[in-house]
Specification:
The complex is a heterodimer of chains A (279) and B (272). A two-stranded antiparallel ribbon of chain A has the order 1-2. Chain A starts with 8 loop residues before the first helix and ends with a helix. The longest helix of chain A has 35 residues. Chain A is mainly α and 279 residues long. Chain A has twelve helices and two strands, in the order αββααααααααααα. In chain A, α5 packs antiparallel against α10 and α10 runs antiparallel to α12. Chain B is mainly α and 272 residues long. Chain B folds into two domains: 30 residues, no CATH class; 210 residues, MetI-like (MetI-like fold, Orthogonal Bundle). Chain B contains twelve helices and no strands. The chains are: A mainly alpha (279), B mainly alpha (272). At the A-B interface, α2, α3, α4, α5 and α6 of A face α2, α3, α5, α6 and α7 of B.
Chain lengths: 279, 272
């Protein structure tokens, strides 16, 4: 281990402990950064506590109110299930179609932002920045804007999910493309094959399994997220969930949540089985 | 190796015929997609969609400057600070709840049945959408940032305990054995054997979750649980697209900065 010549500020304030070994060499043991980190964390906790009005007494004293709504949900209204089926399928279809559209759209953009395939730094930087900005846009905001443009309904939700999937899968895809083994690609280009075919036959087979697995993972998350989108009128389970909460019909809310739980568990096990086949 | 004598054409003909499975997979995928296309419906706005979109994007691209630079409680800087505080404490409280859950859900520490029960509980916690939690906590604390903080913490439990469980299950038992062979007490074993193994990964998970919480904070706004979400949703519902632009601009810049710092911190943690 070679020590840098100019010590960091922290090491200049808290001098490192010096040990002299038997063979006459001196070894510096730098002080742990833990106190500094702890002080910073403590300061952040105090500031956040002030800003958010955190009070442990309110929390402990009134925590029972948290369970009021939860206990009202049980027993759930089983008979209501017949009205849950259609929005539940809508939610699943929305997230499926949205995930597929988003995943297909992100492929060309991800190729354009991979620095090992595109020589032009400006192009890759632009597309990477584009991905980051789209990823920071809250899905709920995208959904709300989509409802203004496309009208209320599942189409708006599908668009919102496609936008989110585009950004999420695109980022992971270009990171994977940038780490592939470029030997096969160079060999194909040396043989005089076109640029696109070289990508098709060398890069694509390497990233395809992990890309599919990313898309499946994203789809799982989207099913859960799609249930929120209904809140802004973008179709699916959220629509009836919002309605029933508004009317305080908590047994029905319980039924909706149970249906969502079962669907999520089923989709997660199906998708993790598929992903284990892929890798 | 007598295959080597074959010509490329003969080699190709010996390739296993996988087209049937491929065809089946493609067929099933296409059928599922066609089926899910049937759910697409929208109450069309009567062809005015394009002009509406134009108005929205023009508004968002011209953010209200006065909102961006005022330091009062309704200016963007304060709202962002509040959102960061909610995400920070929410992540911390979530971690405090998730650590015991993670130890109870790790198959190498407790018996299998307990671990499975614990994991089902975590999964059930994760299924309930965040705005339902938001409504529940508003009954506890009243609307405001405190409710948002508690909602964030409960929503973080799912992912945090899942990642913590994976870390705990990867613990290297050999180190603990050698520590007990050297005569260490239980406390020494936790201090020098377990904490150094878990800390970097836990910290990196927490930083990542903070990042996600900051991004998800807008969801809280829809139920009035504090942060930047509420003004954002109000502005959108009353078509004040310039204000929406100002809030979004602040949020996007903040998230990008935090993401950059958090990825730097996480690589530093990985390197040790």
């Amino acid at each position: 281990m070679k020590q840098s010549d100019t010590p960091k500020l922290y090491d200049r304030i808290f001098k490192p402990r010096k040990y002299t070994l038997e063979n006459g060499k001196t070894v510096n043991e730098r002080h742990s950064r833990l106190p500094l980190v702890l002080i910073l964390l403590l300061a952040a906790v105090i500031v956040s506590g002030e800003v958010t009005g955190f009070s442990i007494t309110t929390l402990l004293g009134r925590l029972n109110y948290f369970f009021v709504m939860l206990f009202d949900m049980f027993p759930p209204d089983w008979a209501y299930m017949k009205d849950v089926w259609s929005p539940l399928w809508d939610t699943i279809k929305m997230s499926l179609l949205g995930s597929v559209i988003g995943a297909l759209l992100c492929i060309p953009a991800a190729v354009l932002s991979s620095s090992n395939l595109i020589r032009n730094r400006a192009v890759t930087a632009f597309f990477k920045f584009f991905f980051s900005v789209v990823r920071t846009l809250p899905t709920l905001v995208v959904a709300l804007i989509a409802t203004y443009i496309f009208g209320l309904g599942t189409f708006a939700g599908t668009v919102a999910i496609a936008v989110f999937t585009f950004a999420y899968c695109g980022k992971i895809l270009y990171e994977q493309i940038e780490t592939v083994d470029m030997g096969a690609h160079e060999a194909l280009e040396a043989l005089g094959i076109g640029k696109l075919s070289a990508i098709r036959y060398s890069v694509w087979p390497q990233v395809l399994p992990s890309f599919l697995s990313t898309v499946l993972f994203c789809f799982e998350g989207n099913v859960r997220y799609a249930s929120i989108l209904g809140y802004v009128g973008a179709g699916g389970l959220g629509l009836i969930l919002n309605e029933k909460i508004g009317w305080r019909e908590y047994p029905r809310v319980g039924m909706i949540l149970i249906a969502l739980f079962v669907a999520v568990v089923a989709i997660e096990s199906l998708s993790s089985w598929l992903r284990s086949k892929l890798t | 190796m007598n295959d080597i004598k074959l010509t490329p054409a003969e080699m190709l003909s010996k390739e296993p015929r996988k087209w049937i499975t491929t065809l089946l997979a493609v067929l099933v995928t296409v059928m599922i997609l066609a089926w899910s296309g049937s759910a697409l419906e929208s109450n069309s706005t009567g062809g005015s969609g394009l002009s509406v979109a134009k108005g929205i994007f023009l508004g968002i691209l011209h953010p209200t400057a006065s909102m961006l630079f005022t330091l009062g409680t309704n200016g963007v800087p304060y709202l962002l600070l509040e959102t960061m505080c909610i995400a920070f404490l929410g992540t911390l409280v979530g971690a405090v709840i998730s650590i015991p859950l993670a130890f109870l859900g790790a198959g190498n520490i407790v018996p299998k049945p307990i671990a499975i029960v614990c994991r089902v509980i975590v999964m059930a916690i994760r299924t309930i959408p965040s705005f339902v939690y938001g409504l529940m906590f508003i009954m506890v604390t009243g609307p405001g940032a405190f409710a948002g903080l508690l909602t964030m913490s409960v929503c973080s439990i799912g992912m945090l305990s899942k990642m913590f469980i994976e870390t705990i299950e990867d613990l290297d038992r050999g180190i603990l054995e050698s520590l007990s062979a050297a005569g260490c007490t239980v406390f020494d074993k936790i201090r020098y054997g377990i904490i150094p193994q878990l800390m970097p990964s836990f910290a990196s998970t927490l930083i990542y979750r903070f990042d996600m919480n900051l991004r998800d904070a807008t969801v809280l706004g829809i139920v009035g649980a504090g942060g930047i979400g509420a003004p954002l949703i109000f502005a959108m519902n009353s078509y004040r697209w310039n204000d929406v632009g100002a809030i979004l601009l602040g949020l996007v810049i903040l998230v990008l900065i935090v993401e950059w710092i958090s990825s730097k911190l996480r690589t530093a943690l990985m390197k040790g």
